[in-house]
Amino acid sequence: MTKWVWKLLFKPQCLWSRWVQNYVLKGRDIWSATATISQSWYWNNVVRMKDLLLDLTGNAGQALLMLESCSPQLKYSTAMYYNALRTRHDTVTWAPLVHGKGCHPKHSFTGVLLMHNTLPTTDQLVSRGIVMVNRCSLCKFQVEDLHHNFFSCGYSTKVLSIIANWLVINVGFTELQEVIQTFLSLRLSRKQQAGFMAMVYYIWKERNDRIFKGICTTPEMLCFKIRSHVNLRLFSS
Ligand SMILES: [Zn+2]
Q: To 10 degrees, what angle do helices 219-236 and 190-208 make?
């Protein structure tokens, strides 16, 4: 939508801009345009995007400068506009672990949720009143929280042990922060990064499959799936 605002300002001679100037704006400039019920849905969205741009930059002059900076050689770049608008944060220490080159994007996504402690584990669902009983679906014995699900559950520790052996990582998986620090100091190979993230993903998937599909997989079979997935991905790349 912002591209159309840009087009009106920087490509006034194109057919669409001339049509809008003559039949919609009728001599007014885009900055003073308002969304009205008599105009089309599409045009009103262009106007709303212009209003958003004004809110973000403060005034028309600054908005014009931003649009100009996003169109080198008078070619509008959505990517540059997105980068100009988005908020940037400091790089987190665990980024190289989660976003390793061999990692599957969906595994990395689960990894990001794990690092932020935002996976909807049962303890969180209980605290929000969504479910009433907290029972780990993997061992059916203890209550489930992030730490238990990945690092202390009997099922998970068996998977961790097999995968650590396969990846030749001779460290214990006991705490998330400890794992992050240790892994970052080890300079993991592509296979080790991909294997760890795949393991996180498959443990979480196993937990969900048990709850939502009633399907149970043994730790050995889950490890077979993890190894197959990682080997296939690394081989194909
Ligand atoms: Zn458990």
A: 140
Q: CA 92 to CA 99: how far, in whole Å?
A: 11
**Which regions in the chain score pLDDT beneath 70?**
172
**Residues 121 and 184: beta-carbon distance below 8 Å:** no
Give the environment of ion ligand 1: residues with CB less than 5 A. Answer: 136, 138-139, 153
Specify the pLDDT at position 236. 83
CB within 8 Å of 219: residues ≥ 6 apart? 155, 158, 159, 162
Q: Mark out the alpha helices in 142-218 (DSSP H runs).
A: 146-147, 154-167, 176-186, 190-208
Q: How far is the CA of 184 from the centre of ligand 1 (A)?
A: 27
Residues 153-182 have pLDDT tens digits of 999 999 999 998 999 887 767 778 777 888
Q: What is the CA(114)–ligand 1 centre distance, in A?
A: 17
